[in-house]
Amino acid sequence: MSGAEDPARAKEAARVAARARREQAHRDLGAAAPGLFAEHFFHSLPLPRHGVIAGYVPLNHEADPGELLAQAVKRGYRTCLPRVAEKASPLQFLQWAPGDPLAGGAHGTKEPMTGRPVLRPDIVIVPMLAFEPGGIRLGYGGGYYDRTLAALRAAGQQVLAVGLAYAEQGTDHLPADPHDQRLDWLVTERRAISFASP
SS3 string of 87-146? Predict the structure, then answer.
């Protein structure tokens, strides 16, 4: 990649390619993948005994954390979903468990009903278009998860950022900006990968 290439243009080109790879992986693995995500998450990650796990409702062929969240509740964790409270601000996380009703949110998302308690997550499951070996993820350009993780980390909270993706969403290199927040772990249908420093 040329050093003079516009980073925004490079990211958009990467998004186009990543969407195609993710869509194909979803067609190939969509039905079996949620159980595999949950298996690798609970068997590989250094999880606290209790705490709050933030997930999301998948859109547009995103990796589905539904089974992971259902198992989390059975194991004694509280679960929540993100809400866009204000544009260009960190996400809010509202308490929710599988089976609870959902409301329409910003950007076509689904979120808990108004009035649900706001929780502070210990683990944030992060959706994406693509990931690279260094723990950088490619999102959609809104920066919500980067701002959220930065705010949680700046507040001194021990938060585990766990990317969820199909293995085919991996790539050798992604264009990155200084504000991009690295993942701590990545979970795919094949395995869990730690990005922790040695």
Answer: CCCCCEEEECCCCCCEEECHHHCEEECCCCCECCCCEEEECCCEECCCCCEECCCCCHHH
pLDDT in tens, 138-172: 998 889 999 999 999 999 888 999 999 999 999 99
pTM for this model (two decimals): 0.92
Q: Among 176, 96, 99, 92, which Cα is nearest to 133's?
A: 176
Residue 33, burial from CB neighbour count under 10 angstroms (0-12, 13-18, 19+): buried
- Could you tell me if residue 71 is inside a domain? yes
Residue 45, domain member (yes or no): yes
Give me the number of domains the chain comprises: 1
Amino acid 161 reads A
